[in-house]
Amino acid sequence: MAKQASNGENHSVAKPPPTPSPLRFSKFFQPNMRILVTGGAGFIGSHLVDKLMENEKNEVIVADNFFTGTKENLKKWIGHPRFELIRHDVTEPLLVEVDQIYHLACPASPIFYKYNPVKTIKTNVIGTLNMLGLAKRVGARILLTSTSEVYGDPLVHPQDESYWGNVNPIGVRSCYDEGKRVAETLMFDYHRQHGIEIRVARIFNTYGPRMNIDDGRVVSNFIAQAVRGEPLTVQAPGTQTRSFCYVSDMVDGLIRLMEGENTGPINIGNPGEFTMIELAETVKELINPDVEITMVENTPDDPRQRKPDITKAKELLGWEPKVKLRNGLPLMEDDFRLRLDKPRKN
Ligand SMILES: NC(=O)c1ccc[n+]([C@@H]2O[C@H](COP(=O)([O-])OP(=O)(O)OC[C@H]3O[C@@H](n4cnc5c(N)ncnc54)[C@H](O)[C@@H]3O)[C@@H](O)[C@H]2O)c1
C-alpha cells in the first residue's frame, strides 16, 4: 500500500523491514531474566544451566571456583552470547546485576566436603551470606540448595519439612550438615529482616550423568565399579536405605520452586526407597552381571534411613519425579563408559 511520506510524496513500493540494530545483540540488549548460578560447573548446576539456557529469554552467569566442578560440564555454552562463566569463590563478595540467584556452590560428596572441612563451613556460611548480600543489593530472588542432611540421622520416617532433624554438631560430617543448617537460617533471617525473596530446596540424593567418578557417592561408586569390572563395595550393614532422584527431575523441581510463590523449605527427591544391597543388585543386573558384591566398613554418622515426604512439593509445586531408577541408571552408565573409555561389549 502506498504510504504518505512526511514530505507529501507517495511511495508505491513497500520498503523491506529494517535490519535489526546491531545494539540488539550488544551489551545494551536486555534479556528478560538474568540468572546467576553459583556452583553451575558442578553436577546438578550444569544440568540446571542446560535447562535454563533452553529458554531464549534467559541470560545465565555461572560463578564457580572449580573445586569439584569442571568447564567440561559447560563446554557447549562457552562462547554463547547469553552465557558467561566466572571463576569465582563464593566466600568472596560478588557484584553482578541479576534477577535470580540459584545458589548451589558447595561440594556435595563427603570425600570432597571432608577434604577441607573449615572451607566447607566457610562456603556454606560466608558464601551464603555473600549471595544473600548480593540478592539484597540488586533485589534478586535467591534459591538455596539445602540438603536432606539437615535431618541428620532421622528419628522420623519418612522426613517431612516440619522435622527439625537429629544432627551431630561435632562429627566429621558436621561441616556440611550444620553448614547447610546455618545457610537455611541465614536465608530465613534475611527474608524476615530484609524482605529478601527466598526459596529453600532440601535436596535428597540425586544421580545422573556428569557426577564425579570416584567421588564416594554410592550410585557413582557402584556404576564406576560395574563399568570397570570391579566388585561393588556395599558399606555395612547394607540395609541402610536411600532414595535416588534422577537429575532432570531435580532440575525441574528447582525451577518450579524458583518460579513459584512458596519460600520452602521443600523436599525435592524421589521417595522410592532402596537398601544399599538392593541398589548394588540392580546395578549388577543392569550393568555388569559378572561383578561380585562385597561388604566394607561404614563411615561414621552415616544415616540409616533416608526417604523424602514430598507431599508439599506435590501440592505446592505440582512436582513429582518421573524417572525410575531402572531407567536412570543406564543413562548414567553411557556417560561413565564414555568418560572411563570402557565401551559396551556386544
Ligand atoms: N547431589 C546430591 O545428591 C545433593 C544432595 C543434597 C544437596 N545437594 C546440594 O546441591 C548442590 C550441588 O551439588 P552437586 O551434586 O552438583 O555437587 P558438585 O560438587 O558437583 O557441585 C558443586 C559446585 O560448587 C562449586 N563450588 C564448591 N565450593 C565453591 C566455592 N567456595 N565457590 C564457588 N564454587 C564452589 C564446585 O566447584 C562445583 O562446581 C550443593 O549445594 C549440594 O550441597 C546435592
UniProtKB/TrEMBL annotation:
Residues 1-10 have a biased composition (Polar residues). The keyword Cytoplasm applies. One of its GO terms (cellular component) is cytoplasm. Belongs to the NAD(P)-dependent epimerase/dehydratase family. UDP-glucuronic acid decarboxylase subfamily. One of its GO terms (molecular function) is NAD+ binding. Keywords: Cytoplasm, Decarboxylase, Lyase, NAD. The keyword Transport does not apply. Its cofactor is NAD(+). Residues 36-330 form the NAD(P)-binding domain. This is UDP-glucuronate decarboxylase. Residues 1-21 are annotated as: Disordered. Its EC number is 4.1.1.35.
